[in-house]
Each structure stands twice: as C-alpha cells, then as structure tokens.
What does this fold into?
Amino acid sequence: MDPVTTEIWMSESARTLFQFDSQTHLNHAALQNRVHPEDRALRDSAVKHAIETQGQYEIEYRALLPDGTLQWIASRGRCITAKDGTSTRLIGVSIDVTPQKEAQDLFRLAAEGSHLGVWHWDEVAKTLTWDGATREMFGIPADAEITIDTFYTALHPDDAERVKQTWRHALELRLPYQIEFRTQRPNGTVRWVDARGHGYYDEAGKPLWMTGVVFDITDRKEAELQTQQNREELSHLSRVAAMGELTASIAHELNQPLSGITSNAAAGQRFINRGKVDLRELHDLLGDIAADGRRAGDVIRGIQGMMKKDVSARRPINLNDIVIRVVRMVKASAMLHSCELGTFLDPDLPMVEGDPVQVQQVLLNLILNAFDAMHDTPVTHRKMVIATERNVDGTIRTSVRDYGVGISQEVQGRLFEQFFTTKANGLGMGLSIVRSIVESHGGTIAAENADGSGARFQFTLPACAETSSV
It folds into this structure.
C-alpha cells in the first residue's frame, strides 16, 4: 500500500481471499469495506500506527465478504522505505485462519462445558494466555496481566521446580506435557490441578507454541487422601488384632530373657554372699544379663513397631530378616498349635524397597491364617513352610505353605475380597488388607492349592533398582 495515495496492490490469491475481481481498483477504503464493522477501527488504528512509526503491525480481525461469508484474517505488515528515503511502502500478508479460530472456539466451548481451563504459551513472543476458568483456578483476577512468572508464582513451593522441569522438558523434547501439581493462591488456599498440553514446532523442530488445558482435581486428591488414611487406620487395627492373637507367644519371648536375667542376677548375689568373688565369672554374668536385657528390648521394640499407628518410611529391607523376625515372634504360637515350623530362605536375596512393619504384617497375617487352616489337621501332619526365592524376572517371592484343607473352588476367586471370610468369627478384612499392602509396594499376591495337601499363599515384591541386576 502507498501511504500517500492509499492505493493497494494485491496478488491474485489475496484478491480471491477478499473476493475482489482482477479489474477492481483497490485502496485502503475498499479493503476496509471488507472488514467486519466491529473490527474496522482495530485494523485502521494498527495500519496508521505502523505508518506513523515506520514500524510493523500484527493483528487478527474478521472479514465480512460480499457473499455473506465471515472469515478470520491474520494480518502482518511493516513499512519499507526506499534507500534514498524518497518513498515508503506498507508491505503485508493476510492469511485465512478461520478453521483454526473455529476449532479454538469449539475447544473453548467444550472446555467451559466440562469445567476445564484453557491456556496458550507463545514460545516466540514469550507470552502466556489464560482463559477465565484458568484464572479462577489459580486465583488470578480477570484484569490482571498474565506472564510466565504469574504461573511460577502461583505454584506450591514444594512442586515449583518439578513443574518447571517437566514443562521445559516437554517443550524442548517435543513430548506431551502432563503433570499433577498443587497451586497456592494469594490467600494461602492450596488446590490440586492436572495440566496437559501439546507443542507445535516449525520445520526445523524449533518450538513455536504450546496449547493445553488444566482442570481442578482437588476433590479427587482429597478423596484419595481420605481413602489412604482409612486404609492405614484399618491396617493398624488389623495389626492390633493380630498381636492380640500372639499374647502367648509374646509372653514366651519375654519370659526367656527375663528368666535369664533373674537366674544370672541370683547367681551373682550368691557369689557375693560367699565372700569369694571371681571377677572374671562376675563379668561374664553381667555380660549375660546385658545380652538378655537387649533381647527383651528387641521383643518390646518389635511389639511397639507392630502396634504403632504411623506408617514407617520405606527403605531397603531384606525379606529373610523379616521372615526370621516374624518366625521368632510366632514360635510359641506354633508350639501351642502343635505345628512344625520350617523355613527355606534364599541366601543371596536382593533387597526390596518397603515398610518393614507393613511387610511383617503381611507375613504375620498369612502365618496366622495358616494356623487356622490346620485346625482340623491331625497333629502329626501339622506343618508350615515359609520360603523366600528370587524369580527370573528379578522380583522376590515369599511364600507360606500349610498342610491344611486347601482352598475350595468356590472360595478361590473371593479370597482377597473385603468382608469375605470362611471363619465363624472372622471380619473378612485380613487378606484384603494384605493385598492392599502388597500392591502399594508394587507387588502381587496369589493363592493356590499345594501338591499333596494344603495351600500356598505367596507374594512378590520388586527388588531395589540398585540390586535387581546383582
């Protein structure tokens, strides 16, 4: 366009776009007549500003064409001045972006109908755009300016770095962007959101922009937290009930070191009363007393660990150590049930990542169930075998095999269901809790009838990453 005469030259494709025939003389006014009345001031102002400042413009506006068609036009232009400074021309390009606009409108309508927020990041211009729903989720006023710093500031401090890394990683490596994180509003309110996005790139693979959605998942997260708390409470009650069944075994475990302490203390008193004290022998007696005291302390700490309500932090554990600890705990109960207790432990077992208290609870429940399963088994045939083994896929299998009545076909598929029990006084929660603990550790649990007689319950847990290839 000539800024002085306002005459315009158009290519044939541009004339087709605005529905001008090849013979029509064009100027700024003629083109303005093709612009939607509500957008004419916007376009006129942008063009005039570019001419006055010898700069450029970039706008989107609607064109209302003679056949009644409404089109969205993306237009860019800039002033070009001759080398001698005698003339200036405004050079521009117009692109039909109607399909993209219609898709955006449909997307926005769908988002509004499903309570989604829509956002757009322009990597070239470094601009971030949020719709009203997104602003509301992050607690940002409708008239506030949105920048990338607005987004970063709204993130919960504990999640900020993780979100930033995921965002840049997705954009630069051309990966889908999906992450759950917390926001913290100016008033301190914390909300959970799920953000997803898809990037767009030029022919060289350079990122141009990313568009996506965000939706509030606070209700879901709170429900998950409540479910987890309920599960932990139920697990704690199950441990208390299991320990109640082991009172005789606990008394036996404590009685042995306490009896040793009493006997050794009495022996020491007799040496002193005789007036002839062998210091070496007295030193050995005191050493035995200290050792028995430690044994009693270990028993009490084990009981405290099983009875405590809070869940321990997960750490690398050796399942053989867990088996040995639980077997020691139930040894007296095995004697009361006239049951022979045996173990087959893999000596080269890798470590697993887990909560030792919860894994003990799993094994303890399976052992107590095995005792019950052999209630009607002749005393001479009552036997239980606890084994550990490394599977070919790197997981660790722990099994409890009894010689009871086995598992009937009717019961097989319901063993791990909540509130299902074959015991007259059972609640049907023990195996359900066992399964939830195993699965929360990334493992699996199964039951089968063993060869000969009885049943075998076995659970597998993944080995720690650093030891799985040993």
